[in-house]
Design goal:
- The protein contains 8 helices and 6 strands.
- The chain is an alpha/beta fold.
- It has one domain: P-loop containing nucleotide triphosphate hydrolases (Rossmann fold), CATH 3.40.50.
- It has a 6-stranded mixed beta sheet with strand order 1-6-5-2-4-3, sandwiched between helices.
- Strand 5 and strand 6 form a beta hairpin.
- The chain is globular and about 40 Å long.
């Protein structure tokens, strides 16, 4: 949920409480709080952090505190699986849709996300081209682990356009 609709406690107290409750961490790493606050305030955010710098938390925690589903786009199937498995072990509603998931399970997982039973939906980039996957999602994160050897990039966008290139072409 955006910071303006969080309980009346100070945002830092609310965020630290959510961090403890969901992830069992006592404090944020350098830069994480500022990134998370920007995302929760509804600002599109680019975060460049070193490998192991805690980028995933910068989209996972806001996803858990916000309405709707967050789509995480990653080209790395093993990374998606590891993150979803870890989130599920913590009791957090996350799933993955990529080429390793049978078609019937893909449909079921997408339906669960649309119904609000999933907070984080990890997709391979080619899946994101499908309009069906974008329907009803308030935000998405693009994780590009090939950005550099020791750095990776997380882009968190809110309120993206659901207009397809074909729609734009017909309006011209």
């Amino acid at each position: 949920m955006p910071l303006d609709i969080l309980p009346s406690a100070e945002p830092q107290d609310v965020l630290t409480g959510a961090l403890r409750r969901h992830f069992a961490f006592d404090r944020f790493r350098a830069g994480q709080r500022e990134i998370i606050e920007a995302v929760l305030a509804g600002r599109s955010t680019v975060a460049i952090l070193p490998t192991g710098g805690g980028k995933s938390l910068c989209y996972q925690l806001p996803a858990l505190l916000s309405a709707g589903v967050t789509i995480v786009v990653s080209p790395l199937i093993a990374l998606m699986k590891d993150q979803v498995d870890q989130l599920n072990r913590l009791g957090l509603p996350a799933t993955v849709i990529n080429s390793t998931v049978p078609r019937d399970q893909q449909r079921s997982r997408l339906e669960q996300a649309i119904a609000g039973r999933i907070k984080l939906l990890y997709l391979a980039p080619e899946r994101f081209q499908n309009d069906e996957f974008r329907t009803g999602c308030p935000s998405f994160a693009i994780r590009d682990s090939s950005f550099a050897i020791h750095w990776s990039l997380v882009i968190i966008c809110r309120g993206f356009s659901r207009t397809s290139p074909a729609d734009k072409a017909t309006k011209n």
